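Input.
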Amino acid sequence: MTAVHDKADAAPVDPADEVLPGGDHLINNADDEIELISPDSLTAELTGHFTFLPVNGAAFVMQVMHPIIGDVVDKYSVFRTDPLGRAIRSTDSVMRWIYGGTEALEEGKRLRKMHQPLQMRNADGKHISALNPEAYAWVIATAFPTLLSSAPLLVGRQFSVVEQRELLEDNRRIAKIVQVPMKGYPTTVEEFGEYFDDFVENKLVRHPVAVELIEQMQAAPAIPRNIPARRLVTAIAAKASIPLQRFNYLTTVGVMDPRVREILGVTWSDDEQRQLERMHAVVRGAYRVLPERVTYFPLAYHARRHHDAIVAMKKREKQGAAYAHARRGVE
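Output.
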């Protein structure tokens, strides 16, 4: 972070040139260096589904197992006081990365700048920041292993080698969109395996925030105090939310690497695995017959339909007389 200028006529700092204490820049990737996510990609197909939420929950738990992220979230996040609002806003941001077109670029910069003030001293008195390069990169990296491990649940099989490579390329695109410093970020599936193993074996901890998040998933939803008949609404919500809580908990814990569950001290039984597989078999069956409008987040649905319409128009263009005449000229 640059020093504050004390002269009234000092030139404003270009965020792209602002150097942070770790040596990286506030804005690390220029717009023309960033590829957007295609709306018809495997990433867009998977992320747009409502079932993305519990899978993303597993990624979030792994994120706060990094000591820096856990400490910063503990101090600054509203996940305790406004868990639903936090989840909605986080999902909104992710939807813009994937389906927002050029809006993804602005959202990435906004996110980066929003996290810049989140700095503190940890229990050891060490200065830490939400933009610590290693920690900030880990936040985005967690999406890749959770997607891979959730494949049997989401699509009923493991991803092929080609699909894994495609998903990692899109993960790298997203990392650039949200302005991750890309030095050291894995470039191949094999490199990512080594990167992930290093985090699990040497860097992740049983952070109290991670444990609290797991417990929160099994608790009844918090009802705001200003809701009329709050006690009655709380009792009804507690009963009604049990199936959803169970689905969310089992998916979150079930897609974690067994070593991550071991760090957290969370058990996992064969019966829980069977429950998880049965639940997602029902969801996959429903997705095959339900219209996309009710299975996708709204932005995801409309972005994919918009893309389909553009592709269809391009196909029709090639059937025009001018194209036919051009083809005959070539022949």
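Residues 183 and 247 are 37 Å apart (CA to CA).
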